[in-house]
Amino acid sequence: MKKTKQNKPVKSSLTKRSIQKFMKNRLAIVGLIGLFLLLTACICAPLLTSYDPGFIDLTQKSLPMSAEHPLGTDRLGRDLLARVLYGGRWSLLIGIAASLGTNLLAAILGCVSGYYGGKVDRTLVTVQEFMSLFPTTLIFILLAGITGRSINIVLAIWILTGWGGTMRIVRSRILSLKQEPFVESCRANGISSFSIMFHHMVPNTMGPIILNVTMNVGGYVLSEAGLTYLGIGLPADIPTWGNILNGAKRMDILLNEPLLWMVPGAAILLLTLSINFFGDGLRDALDSTTK
Amino acid sequence: MQNKTEENLLVVENLTMEFASPRRFLEKQKPSVRAVNDISFTVKEGETFGLVGESGCGKTTLGKCIIRLLKPANGKIFFNADGEMKDLLTLDHEDSFKFRKKLQIVFQDPYAALNPQHTIMEAFDEPMRIHGIGGGDKEKRKELIAMSLERVNLQPDYMYRYPHEFSGGQRQRICVAKALVLEPKLIVCDEPVSALDVSIQAQLLNLMRKLQKELGLTFIFIAHDLSVVHYMSDRIGVMYLGNMVELAEADALYSHTMHPYTEALLSAIPVPVYQGKHDRIILEGDVPSPMYPPSGCPFHPRCSRCMAVCKQSKPRLEEKANGHFVACHLFDEE
Predict the structure, then answer these.
(1) Mean of the per-residue pLDDT values for chain B?
(2) Own/partner pairs, A262-268, CB within 8 angstroms, 24+ separation
(3) Would you call B126 and A6 a contact, using CB atoms and an 8 Å cutoff?
(4) A7 interaction partners in chain B (CB closer than 8 Å)
């Protein structure tokens, strides 16, 4: 018998192949680099600027670009670079939290729906169909009027209404996995439903879930900006990209101080484009049916 | 034939499995499909019971009912638990769980039978843990896994690898090892070799026969390859459209074929040497839809020796020679 050197778990060559496939995709690499730059800039904000994003200095208002204020200041004398960098932290944090929350809920619901089938499945699918038709903006407008604006409420609404897409993907994967012999073998051995669902089936649907988490971050950053721009999203004292844009929506600012809307706009554009390029590459890399 | 003597490990009585068609809005409910229709047979301890029949005849469904992956609509499955026959279908949840490790299955497709995300050790470990094999000691279980892999001629340190690092034949041996590690009495082999190359088939079949002798296992061997079934089985049951049409000792079935369907099946075995004209019986038409089975004998629309009585009454499986059961009106005694 031949002696083998492997005593430790060998790294799955599936992962290796996915990484190789991803590296071949140029656009995806561009996305990854863009995402990396934006994330590092936002995380390292205190190193890149010494200003406080909320500090109002009326003697320094509406300044153009200068060595002191690289991107100038707004009408209240707040440093724009600091506001965009710190604002990016909030925007990304909210985007990531909303995306994780939505997809976690979607994965659980999709799994339960696909595994148990029958009435549970029919109910969840009907609720999902209703949700996908429901105008969420209406809820935001209503709640902004009733309870005022708050991060928790915005996140809660996003999570409660946004689970439909991922849920359907997970559900269909679970439906096909249920027929797989390895799952039948678990059932024949009397392994609990909980273990079958979360130890055997969910790891096999991780590809699409990871993809959706990534893509949804971009989507939520964009909808945060949209909602806050309209004034029905987050409270005005949090410097998100949407709030910076909201502060720049007056006609004379749009015309005379273009930096105030161009910079946060460009940041949003760069982030969503990067995430979409990265996500596309990720999807191709995780799809084991294509070479 | 429904004797519950000690030598029988498994007694199946009047087993019926129905699949209901899904009801669609504003549509007439379609009749349900009877995949397994009132089947009875016994399996002796230590023997291999072959099940043959074409695709869709219900042999896999029957196998899945026996390991209780499906809940039959009707019937009884008695299993010999240390001399006492217990009906697996009437046991409560806890007792039923104890029997699950005694009955194992080896699936047809070795590529889908192992979770691609789990190493071999993880795949073996979970069922062992919940069935208390190795006494709750992780190291002991690891030892048992290593032993089990060696038993199917694989290296013990393969347990750290993932399924996709193995060939089809290796995977099927891993599946056999996975079933064996739970110390089963009966293994349902659901076409275990039909996805493999011919050279690998022989290797696996010989390995399974060797393990059967060493460990005193009982096999229910489902296949559509008649030569493989003949090689493996002591007794063979022939299924058609959810019914058992003939059941006999393997050699008797091949030498004294009784049912016309079995005759047609056997004539389809390719003969390696040219012996003049090979009188192959070609069956006319297709298998009828199990949703709308024919009246009388299920085989009558395709039978070359169909009589008037075949269209009206369904023949029962009766013993016509010693240990040779057949369900056909041709052998009715007037």
Answers:
(1) 88
(2) A263/A71, A263/A80, A263/A84, A264/A84, A264/A87, A264/A225, A267/A38, A267/A84, A267/A88, A267/A241, A268/A91, A268/A221, A268/A222, A268/A225, A268/A241
(3) no
(4) 157, 160
Q: Give the H/E segment covering residue B147.
A: helix B138-151
Q: What's the fold here for domain A19-49+71-286?
A: MetI-like fold (1.10.3720)
CB A41 within 8 A of CB A86: no
Nearest CA distance, B19 vs chain A (angstrom): 15
pLDDT below 50 — which residues of chain B? 1-2
Please give the pLDDT value at position A21.
Answer: 84
Count CB atoms within 10 A of the CB of residue B26.
4
- Searching chain B, which residue's CA lies closest to the CA of residue A12? B162
Contact B256, B267 (CB under 8 A): no
Judged by CB atoms closer than 8 Å, whether chains meet at A181 and B109 is answered as yes
Please answer whether residues B322 and B314 qualify as being in contact, where contact means their C-beta atoms are separated by less than 8 angstroms.
no
Q: Residue B107 and residue A185: Cβ atoms within 8 Å?
A: yes
pLDDT in tens, A175-199: 999 999 999 999 999 999 999 999 9
Interface test with B, best of A8, A182, A196 (most B CBs within 10 A): A182
How many Cβ pairs within 8 Å bridge chains A and B?
77
Q: In chain A, whose CA is at the least distance from the CA of B101? A: A189
CA–CA distance, B291 with B273 (Å, rounded to integer): 41
Tokens 């148990």 sit on residue = A116
Which one, of A128, A143, A166, A102, lies nearest residue A233 by Cα? A143
More confidently predicted of A94 and B287: A94
The dihedral region occupied by B71, where left means phi > 0, alpha psi between -120 and 50, and beta the remainder, is beta
Could you tell me if A184 lies within 8 Å of chain B, comparing CB atoms?
yes
Confidence of residue A13 (pLDDT cuts 50, 70, 90): low
